[in-house]
TrEMBL record:
EC class: transferase
Subunit structure comment from the entry: Homodimer. Interacts with SOCS1 (via) SH2 domain and SOCS box. Interacts with HSP90AB1; prevents nucleus translocation of phosphorylated STAT3 and HSP90AB1. Interacts with MAP3K7/TAK1. Interacts with PIAS3. Interacts with TICAM1. Interacts with TRIM15; this interaction prevents TRIM8 cytoplasmic translocation.
Name of the protein this chain belongs to: E3 ubiquitin-protein ligase TRIM8
Recorded GO CC terms: cytosol; nucleus
Organism: Bambusicola thoracicus
Name of a matching Pfam family: zf-RING_UBOX
């Protein structure tokens, strides 16, 4: 019941443009809300008349994008609920004999959990051009973006933080920044099980 309530609540916090939970929501005069980055990108090439992507309300010039403080507070509380949610137990996708064992490693690129016995089995599987990226199963939450349902597989050179694809490519807070594959910085961002700062990926 609580999870159903949470899902219904989340539907009210989705940006109509990027279809993810709002990031720095702003409100137009027509009362519709969007991520600041999303509406900014939607209007980036417009020099005169602009329209609300939701109701098609026309504006002769771009209106001031007022931050919706109340909605921002609600989004922050919602995101904190996601962080407090206990992680579910993942099981190895390669175990075929008997019940699958709890995962010890997870490949972030393939999104494939595997037990210790099947790590090499997974490494022998076809992968993307960037290769596999295995991390400890206990550290997966530290690699997860708190705003988007995606792993942080990129490194923002401008702010020296790990970001997900939505943060840097789809109207996120790091759009336009120089980024590289997180594997290049992996020695710097390796998560320590005893370091709270590392768990937050703030390096």
């Amino acid at each position: 019941m609580a999870e159903n309530w949470k899902n219904c609540f989340e539907e009210e916090l989705i940006c109509p443009i990027c279809l993810h939970v709002f990031v720095e929501p702003v409100q137009l005069p027509c009362k519709h809300n969007f991520c600041r980055g999303c509406i900014g990108e939607a209007w980036a090439k417009e020099t005169g008349l602009v329209r609300c992507p939701e109701c098609n309300q026309a504006y002769n010039q771009k209106p001031n994008l007022e931050k919706n403080l109340k909605l921002t507070n609600i989004v922050e509380k919602f995101n904190s609920l996601n962080l407090e949610k206990p992680p579910s137990v993942l099981h190895c996708v390669f175990c075929r004999r008997g019940p699958p064992l709890p995962a010890q490693k997870i490949c972030l690129r393939c999104e494939a959990p595997c037990c210790q016995s099947h790590v090499q089995t997974h490494l022998q599987q076809p992968s993307t051009a960037r290769g596999h990226l295995l991390v400890e199963a206990d550290d997966v939450r530290a690699w997860s973006c708190p705003q988007h349902n995606a792993y942080r597989l990129y490194h923002c050179e401008a702010e020296q933080v790990a970001v997900c694809q939505f943060c840097c490519y789809y109207s996120g807070a790091h759009q336009g920044h120089s980024v590289c594959d997180v594997e290049i910085r992996r020695n710097e961002i390796r998560v320590s099980p005893v370091s709270a700062e590392a768990r937050e990926m703030s390096w």
